[in-house]
Design a protein that fits this description.
Number of domains: 2
Number of strands: 9
Order of helices and strands: HEEEHHEHEHEEEEH
Structural class: alpha+beta
Radius of gyration: 19 Å
CATH class of the largest domain: Alpha Beta
Largest sheet: 7 strands, mixed
């Protein structure tokens, strides 16, 4: 009898786990076999690894989290290319890139668009709704893995919420902000947070 009980218990757990791995709400527990993060990203924990094709200086280039070791990284997600709010904040970050570089910080923007779409948007003049030249990489997350790993993907829509993640030089998450689709992020506030983290690193709390 105990063997039968164990059999059905195992079957029930298996069905439940299977549902979690395909559910859009399964941010807490996911399948190890798929290579997906086991839990939502958390402050003080290592940032989920990422890699993919980005547009850098209007050319395609493979980038990864490892490329930014030893620096602060602002990784921000936006929903789609060729939308209204997105160019405003993307351009704002681009115009302040030297302020970020001055404090040992790089920026990467991510959406679920293809790298071809990114390039098309960058090559479109700003007066026509495009970005124009951008001073940091725009990374393609076409298979949506990065957005899933960072727990910002809206599964049904196939786009990412406006998540912003600050990763320290050791690859550890120190700040997470996730906004709903209509609202962008503040460049000044992002700079303030990084400077505050760096001050604490140097001087203590």
């Amino acid at each position: 009898m105990s063997g039968i009980v164990r059999y059905f218990a195992k079957a029930i757990v298996g069905r439940y786990t299977s549902k979690l791995t395909v559910s859009s709400l399964s941010s807490v527990s996911r399948s190890v076999s798929t290579g997906v993060q086991l839990c939502s990203p958390r402050v003080q924990q290592p940032a989920p690894d990422f890699r993919g094709t980005a547009v850098v200086n209007q050319e395609f280039k493979e980038i990864s989290l490892a490329d930014y070791k030893g620096k602060y990284l602002v990784l921000f997600f936006y929903p789609l290319d060729f939308t209204f709010v997105c160019p405003t904040e993307i351009i704002a970050f681009s115009e302040r890139i030297q302020d970020f570089k001055a404090i040992n910080t790089e920026i990467v923007g991510v959406s679920t668009d293809s790298h071809f779409s990114h390039l098309g948007w960058i090559n479109t003049p700003r007066k026509a709704g495009g970005l124009g030249p951008i001073t940091y990489p725009l990374l393609s997350d076409f298979n949506k893995k990065i957005a899933r790993d960072y727990d910002v993907l809206l599964e049904n829509a196939g786009v990412a919420l406006r998540g912003l993640f600050i990763i320290n030089p050791k690859g550890v998450l120190v700040q997470i902000t996730v906004n709903d689709l209509p609202v962008g992020r503040s460049v000044d506030e992002t700079l303030r947070l990084i400077k505050a983290f760096q001050f604490v690193e140097k001087h203590g709390e």
